């Protein structure tokens, strides 16, 4: 972990942050606030909407039992927040800013400029945007070097993943500081080296979602069938092994290499509306090398882990579904 | 459940099946055999490969602890199987046939014709194919009316989903019988009314997989990042709520309608290489109506269920990953 970075872009150690500003208090913004509170921080919420304060209170209270179950930091309290309608007031004295305003580009551009103007030098400002690039959002800010994307998943207080990426004008130090900070507070961080529309997880789930919409549009499957095809199928494997490791195991003892040899031709099949890339030797070797780099355990060990996970996941899900009945 | 169906296509009640033939004993075929054994059936395995018998023995033994944990039927034994190299011998007296040979169309066509010729009238024959249509596979069979696709997911002894669909010459009675039988033995069945390449779950996971291959091909993400973006992100939600219900909740209290209004424009964004369908009024209303039909509970109840599931899944996965260390 990098503790000291560039003076201008990202000042101070991640461990020294005490107070965080949450700009925008919808589902995502208030979810972030709840998470930061559970980690023992003081939170200053900015939201100009009438009735924002009781709504934030309600969202934090709704999240707190879950956060308590996962374990609170010492001194964490659901009451350690204030709600503001003035941005300068909200960011006063904070060590980090998380912006979670509605997904409207111009609104984000103006808001990030306002936040930047009001926030002390060297404090990193992250945006929860689910799709805009920081290059596009930072156009009106005076100090774009400290603006980064810190993209969470709903609900941000339960899903560990945060995708961190900068824009063209973002300094590497600010990106590194944000990645370090999220990791420090227990997040699973993917630091991207370049801007890709939709980042990584959204591109993947968006491909799936678009295929699902096509199927509904064409009367090929119902909403219920689409959901159950995932919950009772591949969805049971994905919490333990992502799509790459899953297909590594589909190759049996031969792993990904065998899988690509055996099922590679199916990339030409009309199994989805998305055309696959040409399975060149380079791509094949890159995928195999990537699996080898990501996973040193044997196929047998992975199968044992997968089976244990599927059983455990099925058992807890069955229990939760049973409560529904 | 339909117990009595057409005399010629699907004779007998699903509850009367005692013995099942598993044709082909690779990962999928032997996985099916293990599942059928755990449900108390006698299994007759056909596999012409040298050394098939000890391999089947080994695969069943590897699956048995998991099956024991999930609960065995009365009288279930991992020893209630025989291995044959003659098809007529393997299908003698069975009440159901599950074919799981390698994914080579001509091989499947010939094998299904041979199975059909050797199997008693009225016994339904299912293929585990992950991608061929039964219309294409049944071309050489004398009685294509009893040939259905029964597509499982790896490992078939742990993943509940089975997609059931017929070919052009398959009788509705045989499709219904297969769906009833799989349900009877505890599977989560999706009965499709028409042939769609890749069925449902494979189309969805294949869209995701192809997008992932493109990202690797273009240096946009590593194998490790792709996997973790799912395991630590959307993958934690998918065992409880499929992609449609997940996005229903992304709309907050407004549900899917609000989600499509708010995020609908992002379908035009280059967030994946798959073009989305036009979000017409008809499609929008079909998606909303589909969610309403699939899910009568309130958004609040679904959020409570989702949060409980994510916590429970995270806890069991953390425990399993902890064992690794």
UniProtKB/TrEMBL annotation, chains A, B:
<dbReference type="InterPro" id="IPR006176">
    <property type="entry name" value="3-OHacyl-CoA_DH_NAD-bd"/>
</dbReference>
<feature type="domain" description="3-hydroxyacyl-CoA dehydrogenase NAD binding">
    <location>
        <begin position="19"/>
        <end position="194"/>
    </location>
</feature>
<dbReference type="Pfam" id="PF00725">
    <property type="entry name" value="3HCDH"/>
</dbReference>
<feature type="domain" description="3-hydroxyacyl-CoA dehydrogenase C-terminal">
    <location>
        <begin position="198"/>
        <end position="267"/>
    </location>
</feature>
<comment type="pathway">
    <text>Lipid metabolism; butanoate metabolism.</text>
</comment>
<comment type="similarity">
    <text>Belongs to the 3-hydroxyacyl-CoA dehydrogenase family.</text>
</comment>
<dbReference type="InterPro" id="IPR036291">
    <property type="entry name" value="NAD(P)-bd_dom_sf"/>
</dbReference>
<dbReference type="GO" id="GO:0006631">
    <property type="term" value="P:fatty acid metabolic process"/>
</dbReference>
<dbReference type="InterPro" id="IPR013328">
    <property type="entry name" value="6PGD_dom2"/>
</dbReference>
<dbReference type="InterPro" id="IPR006108">
    <property type="entry name" value="3HC_DH_C"/>
</dbReference>
<dbReference type="GO" id="GO:0016616">
    <property type="term" value="F:oxidoreductase activity, acting on the CH-OH group of donors, NAD or NADP as acceptor"/>
</dbReference>
<dbReference type="Pfam" id="PF02737">
    <property type="entry name" value="3HCDH_N"/>
</dbReference>
<dbReference type="InterPro" id="IPR008927">
    <property type="entry name" value="6-PGluconate_DH-like_C_sf"/>
</dbReference>
<protein>
    <submittedName>
        <fullName>L-carnitine dehydrogenase</fullName>
    </submittedName>
</protein>
<dbReference type="GO" id="GO:0070403">
    <property type="term" value="F:NAD+ binding"/>
</dbReference>
<keyword id="KW-0560">Oxidoreductase</keyword>
């Amino acid at each position: 972990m990098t503790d000291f970075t560039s003076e201008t872009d990202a000042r101070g150690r991640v461990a020294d942050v005490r107070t965080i500003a949450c700009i925008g208090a919808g589902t995502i913004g208030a979810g972030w606030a709840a998470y930061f509170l559970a980690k023992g921080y003081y939170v200053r919420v900015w939201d100009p909407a009438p009735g924002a304060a009781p709504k934030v209170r309600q969202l934090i209270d709704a999240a707190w039992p879950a956060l308590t179950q996962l374990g609170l930091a010492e001194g964490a309290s659901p009451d350690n927040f204030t709600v503001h309608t003035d941005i300068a007031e909200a960011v006063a004295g904070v060590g980090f800013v998380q912006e979670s305003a509605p997904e409207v580009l111009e609104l984000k551009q103006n808001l990030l400029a306002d936040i930047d103007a009001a926030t002390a030098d060297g404090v990193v400002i992250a945006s929860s945007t689910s799709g805009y690039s920081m290059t596009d959002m930072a156009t009106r800010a005076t100090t774009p070097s400290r603006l980064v994307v810190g993209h969470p998943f709903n609900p941000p207080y339960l899903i560990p993943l945060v995708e961190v990426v900068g824009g063209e004008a973002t300094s590497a130090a600010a990106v590194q500081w944000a990645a370090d900070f999220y990791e420090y507070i227990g997040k699973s961080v993917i630091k991207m080296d370049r801007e890709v529309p939709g980042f990584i997880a959204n591109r993947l789930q968006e491909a799936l979602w678009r295929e699902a919409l096509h199927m509904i549009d064409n009367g090929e499957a119902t909403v219920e069938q689409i959901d159950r095809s995932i919950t009772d199928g591949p969805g049971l494997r994905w919490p333990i092994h992502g799509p790459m490791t899953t297909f590594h195991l589909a190759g049996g003892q031969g792993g990904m290499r065998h899988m690509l040899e055996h099922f590679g031709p199916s990339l030409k099949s009309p199994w989805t509306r998305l055309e696959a890339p040409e399975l060149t030797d380079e791509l094949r070797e890159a995928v195999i090398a990537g699996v080898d780099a990501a996973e040193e355990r044997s196929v047998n060990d992975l199968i044992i882990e997968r089976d244990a996970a599927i059983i455990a996941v099925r058992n807890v899900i069955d229990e939760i579904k049973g409560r529904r009945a």
